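Batch manifest line 410
LIGAND: beta-D-galactopyranose
JOB: complex structure
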Amino acid sequence: MLRRLLTLLAVALLGLAVAQSQIEIFSWWAGDEGPALEALITQYEADHPGVEVVNATVTGGSGVNARAVLKTRMLGGDPPDSFQVHAGQELIGTWVVADRMEDLTFLYEEMGWFDAYPQGLIDAMSTDEGIWSVPVNIHRSNVMWFVPAKLEEWGITAPTSWSEFLTICPAIQANGVTPLALGENWTQVHLWESVALGVLGAEDYDKLWTTELAFTDPKALEVWDVFGQVLDCTNDDAAGLSWQQATDMVVGGTAAFNIMGDWAAGYMSTTLGLEPGVGYGWAASPGTNGVFMWLSDAFGLPMGINNREGTLDWLRLVGSAKGQDIFNPLKGSIAPHFESDLSLYNAYLKSAAADWQSNEVVGSLAHGAVAKEAFMSDFATVMEIYLATGSAEGAANAAQAIAGQVGLGQ
Ligand code: GAL
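JOB STATUS: finished
ARTIFACT:
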């Protein structure tokens, strides 16, 4: 009996010795958004046998729910060891200004990352006081998705401008097909930014975020006018659909097109098992050819966490070419690290990587690159106002007022 007890004790102690510590990684990559993160966690645990990763997820595309939970935890003094956040203004305008994040300059120096990522990305993650996150990917926002065989069947091609889209819209509807699949509120903001880029062009689109172009300027008002016409070509049940369900409409042939970030490519390739170019096709969203609207998922180092050393190792993996090449082929994104091995990526991602190199680059509103989180989340209300009233002026005035309140561009 005693011997059995001692054996049990020894086994328990051994277990403790193997899993001495934990790190909690917080994100919204749950369910069918999860495979890329899970692969990265598997690699981390293989590299660090003593550390268990607690994969804490809050479901909800683009982090609409996760950000609220994160806020409660951060303000309550219970930060996760690291959390998913969009590189750029989303993190800087909230937790960096609130002095809740550690400057990662020392880690960038140790890892040689100042020379490993594009300068524009480094600039977007930095302030005069430091650099605040480690990027794991580059996603593209302005992509139009379709099924090539279906377009052929319907006798249409991917439109290269919004006016061309609006011209073919009635013919698609006449086939009993929804021209453009749409989902819940944030996916509408996502569509809006592609319409804005298509209508304004890169230069004026950029000026919205520096406030050089007012939301009430006639050019910006036109964005809402076009957006309203585009909405007339979408499904009535948009408000109740996730981005995956909107994507499913295209895959299932009940909708012709969808505008979504290239996590849709990850979903269609990794989750649905479709072959890029055959099971699904892509083009720059109308009027945006030659422009790459970027966003980046990143991780930072909050102050006051439980396992700083284990988390630094997490960040070392996240920011490495090795970690990024495990994560991104599954995720539908490309690696910011210059030493990424493109041969590991599928045909869609190879084309995204070529565009990232050659295109003009602008940042995403809906995914935290260009505007503070406060503006971004209030823009959901602007969208509600527009949907309820159909008034371009009303939406523009609201956007302008919010820009002033939150100090957009400052
Ligand atoms: C974006 C995020 C992507 C993907 C998407 C859908 O904001 O950057 O990685 O998760 O939301 O949830």
